[in-house]
Amino acid sequence: MSEDRSSSQPRSWLERITDVFSDDPRNRQDIKNIVREAAERSIVDSETLNILEGALQVSDMQVRDIMIPRSQMISINVSESIKNYLPSIIESAHSRFPVMGEGQNEVVGILLAKDLLPLVLKNNCEDFRLEDFRLKDVLRPTTFVPESKRLNVLLREFRATRNHMAIVVDEFGSVAGLVTIEDVLEQIVGDIEDEHDFDEEDSLIKEVEPGITVVKALTPLNDFNDHFKTRFPDEDFDTIGGIVTHHFGRVPECNETIRIDAWMFRVINGTSRQINLLEVTPVGEE
User: Which of 89, 119, 175, 218 has the most beta carbons within 10 angstroms of its beta carbon?
Assistant: First the structure.
């Protein structure tokens, strides 16, 4: 008589995940556990695991968790002349800008940088003067969302309306910040890599040129001190990113630099909430 295999052998990963989805899952943690086990069995790779966990996480997060605070918003005043705000647009390299009215909580619209491109052609016409340009004529409608909106709901609305930016308001209707579709997607797929990124398997500290080193912001201070022979205190901060952020007094933007002791730190990758990669160069003692 053959042995009952269903009672003597452990269930496969496919059988377990089928059980989870056969009825309503008890909670998201059950799904996360199954997905993590799949990664441990090499059924899915680590990148897929991160995306799946990120997709589950956005339903637990609110807009206030990822928004760019009002103090860090790059905005334009509707009464400004184009000659005044054009340098800010070029320097920031952003694609969308809130346009503020006379009141501090009055958002009259959203300016898309691409809507200024026709001015390049018009400026070559003899009958066109840059001073005649009216900002209100090219503004897009503003979308407002509360701080408490769930990210999965916001993403669905972004896709339905094809908007890429929304102004965040608090419970009193005051402008609290802004959020973009890129901010939401970043929670799912992670940061978009650039030429400065290096793989997780690589070390936290990587010399790219003589005297120029790329350092992950999450590098423990002890490891940083050992490598660079520095003495940054680790009583209040665990990572070199924490030290740099502390000296800035805020979350710095990409390409911002700061000197700390005999070292120059340049942010080469980060988000509105944290820095990811730093370029470290010696500048000598003062």
Answer: 175
How far is the C-alpha of 258 from the C-alpha of 280, rounded, in Å? Answer: 10
Whether pTM exceeds 0.70: no
pLDDT in tens, the chain (286 residues): 444 444 455 556 556 555 545 545 566 667 777 777 777 777 767 677 777 777 777 777 889 888 888 888 888 998 888 888 888 787 777 889 999 998 888 999 999 988 887 776 665 555 556 666 788 888 999 999 999 999 989 999 999 999 899 999 998 889 999 999 988 888 777 654 544 455 544 578 988 888 889 999 889 999 999 999 999 988 888 899 999 999 999 888 877 899 999 999 998 877 666 788 899 999 865 4
Joined together, the tokens standing for residue 78 give 């509707």
Residue 166 to residue 151: CA distance in whole angstroms: 12
Buried b / exposed e across 227-266, counting CB within 10 Å, b at 16+? Answer: bbebebebeebebbbbbbbeebeebbebeeebebeebbbb
